[in-house]
């Protein structure tokens, strides 16, 4: 995009952030009463809603039942007005299906699946506004929703993107920076053990720069973890105060 | 709709309560539940609104794009409706599960807006026969708590009121080609006149009496309901009977009169609320966060 400087000489990005700064994250758990667990997250201009139903009986065929693990069912859907250009199909297109499969694999790594054999957990994410980092916002929202539903997990799953703009690794890229054509790395991490659950890299990146970009991404994930942890602690203390009062 | 399991005892309790004019949450037969409305919640749309009617949560986003007018109406723009039953509302809506309900809702809304008075379509025309504004109205059902149609129609009216369509100037350059220029100023836009847009009122027949704004449990007890689209002046734009039970003509008239009365009230409260929201603009921050 001609005319827009992605990284200024003073080291500021197009939206005024420094390379290591995340976008502002605001989130809330327990948004819906009918679902078992729900959460809403806003990362900059990206808004995602996640709901969790379960664990419950397997719906739609006994053949899906796994004798020793829970079956995790994910669906990723985008509202038609979420992107700049109106999207015709909210779900069912290839991109959504790929995202759903990625989410499923990510959560299978963290949820203690051996506790609920022959059952199903549904995780539904809905993107209400998309401004880059969709997958990450979905993973972060779904983590909060799974915690809200009381389903035990090994650790939080925090996801973050990073890229390389003019030889500087930057974290949490917006839509503008995504479409600029630079390399994009998506990472989902279990913060305490620093285990990588999902790792994707698009476009060209020189092998010498790989380590810098990965480190930047891991730093970003840990910052996200700090925010999510704070939100969960506040939510739990609010709920326990309400319970003590009644 | 998403189903709720009701025992015989609960069903009898609800029906007997309605006979005596009392509902399980203490409302009278023609009272609505508390509604919360927020406008301008999604920033990259031309207009948006979110309505919470107790457990029913609807989000409407409107995008205005330029397109070619329909061949039989060259001087008018048009509205396109799309409803998405999100899986968040109920696991049954996953994949294609919600498509039937979504198509039903979209078609009903299309029919009630399909008259000359609802929205002034001529104002959406840019160049006759060549370009016009196509207003895409997209509804996302986030939570299903009964009374979907009413909530969707009210949220749609609010979102259309909130829509800002940029002003265009048509310039003719040297070769006689006409060019369309969108104004750059975000405040230089026109609004849609929503004073004649109808709101739907669903009147459900439970036992011998009828109730307005049924919850999911009450919907499970009712055999037949009438959906009436009422404008602010009390004119009826469309009616439809739903449900497997039958209604005799007197009931139909009674329900229609009830719906008209309630519809006028709803339209009035909505206009008051929208005027209040105009004066204190919501910057979209408190969307789901409060």
Question: What would you say this structure looks like, in words?
Answer:
The complex is a heterodimer of chains A (246) and B (290). Chain A is built from four helices and nine strands; from the N terminus they run ββββαβαββαββα. With 246 residues, chain A is α+β, with helices and mostly antiparallel strands. In chain A, helix 1 packs across helix 2. The termini of chain A are far apart. The mean pLDDT of chain A is 90. By secondary structure, chain B is an alpha+beta fold. In chain B, 27% of the residues lie in helices and 31% in strands. Chain B contains five helices and 14 strands. Chains A and B meet through strand 2, strand 3, strand 4 and strand 5 of A and strand 3 and strand 6 of B.
Keywords:
heterodimer; A: 246 residues; alpha+beta; 5-stranded mixed sheet; 4-stranded antiparallel sheet; 9 strands; globular; B: 290 residues; 6-stranded mixed sheet; 31% strand; elongated
Largest interface, counted by CB within 8 Å of the partner chain's CB: A-B, 35 and 34 residues
Q: Quote the beta fraction of chain A.
A: 25-35%
Number of contiguous helices of chain B: 5
Q: Give the rounded overall mean pLDDT of chain B.
A: 87
**Low-confidence region ranges of chain A:** none
> What separation lies between the terminal Cα atoms of chain B?
28 Å
Please outline the major beta sheet of chain A. 5 strands, mixed
Order of helices and strands of chain B: HEEEEHEEHEEEEEEHEEH
Helix-and-strand structural type of chain A: alpha+beta
Q: Nearest-angstrom radius of gyration of chain B? A: 21 Å
Number of strand segments of chain A: 9
What is the approximate shape of chain B?
elongated
Structural class of the helix and strand makeup of chain B? alpha+beta
Query: Which quaternary structure do these chains form?
Result: heterodimer
Give the proportion of residues in helices of chain A: 25-40%
Radius of gyration of chain A: 19 Å
Measure the end-to-end span of chain A.
57 Å
Give the helix level of chain B as a range of percent: 25-40%
């Amino acid at each position: 995009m001609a005319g827009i400087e992605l990284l200024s000489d003073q080291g500021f990005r197009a939206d005024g952030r420094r390379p290591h700064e995340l976008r502002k994250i605001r989130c809330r758990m327990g948004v819906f009463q009918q679902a078992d667990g729900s959460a809403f997250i806003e990362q900059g201009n990206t808004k995602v809603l996640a709901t969790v139903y379960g664990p419950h009986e397997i719906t739609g065929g006994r053949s899906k039942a796994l004798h020793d693990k829970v079956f995790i069912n994910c669906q990723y859907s985008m509202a038609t007005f979420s992107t700049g250009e109106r999207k015709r199909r909210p779900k069912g297109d290839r991109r959504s299906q790929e995202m759903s499969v990625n989410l499923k694999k990510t959560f299978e790594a963290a949820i203690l699946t051996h506790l609920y054999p022959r059952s199903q957990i549904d995780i539904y994410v809905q993107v209400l506004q998309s401004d880059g980092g969709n997958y990450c916002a979905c993973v972060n929202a779904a983590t909060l929703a799974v915690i809200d539903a009381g389903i035990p997990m090994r650790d939080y799953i925090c996801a973050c993107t990073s890229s390389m703009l003019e030889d500087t690794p930057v974290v949490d890229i917006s839509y503008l920076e995504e479409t600029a054509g630079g390399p994009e790395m998506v990472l989902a991490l279990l913060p305490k053990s620093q285990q990588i659950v999902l790792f994707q890299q698009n476009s060209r990146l020189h092998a010498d720069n790989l380590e810098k970009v990965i480190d930047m991404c891991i730093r970003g994930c840990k910052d996200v973890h700090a925010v999510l942890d704070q939100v969960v602690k506040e939510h739990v203390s609010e709920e326990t105060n309400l319970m003590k009062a009644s | 709709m998403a189903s709720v399991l009701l025992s015989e005892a609960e069903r009898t309790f609800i029906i007997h309560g309605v006979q005596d004019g009392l509902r399980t949450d203490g409302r009278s037969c023609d009272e609505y539940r508390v509604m919360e409305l927020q406008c301008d919640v999604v920033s990259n749309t031309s207009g948006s609104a979110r309505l919470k009617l107790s457990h029913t949560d609807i989000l409407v986003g409107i995008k205005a794009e330029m397109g070619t007018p329909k061949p039989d109406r060259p001087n008018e723009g048009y509205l396109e409706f799309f409803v998405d039953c999100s899986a968040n509302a109920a696991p049954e809506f996953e994949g294609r599960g919600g498509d039937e309900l979504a198509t039903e809702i979209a078609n009903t809304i299309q029919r009630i807006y399909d008259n000359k008075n609802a929205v002034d379509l001529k104002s959406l025309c840019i160049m006759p026969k060549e370009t016009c504004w196509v207003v895409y109205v997209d509804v996302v059902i986030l939570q299903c708590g009964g009374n979907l149609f009413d909530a969707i129609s009210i949220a749609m009216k609010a979102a259309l009121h909130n829509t800002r369509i940029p002003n265009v100037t048509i310039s003719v350059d040297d070769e006689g080609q006409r060019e369309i220029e969108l104004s750059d100023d975000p405040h230089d836009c026109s609004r849609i006149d929503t004073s004649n847009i109808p709101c739907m009122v669903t009147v459900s027949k439970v036992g011998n009496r009828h109730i307005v704004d049924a919850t999911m449990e009450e919907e499970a007890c009712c055999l037949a309901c009438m959906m009436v689209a009422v404008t602010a002046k009390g004119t009826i734009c469309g009616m439809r009977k739903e449900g497997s039970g039958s209604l005799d003509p007197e009931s139909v008239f009674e329900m229609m009169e009830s719906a008209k009365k309630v519809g006028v009230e709803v339209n009035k409260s909505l206009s008051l609320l929208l005027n209040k929201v105009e004066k204190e603009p919501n910057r979209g921050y408190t969307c789901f966060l409060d």
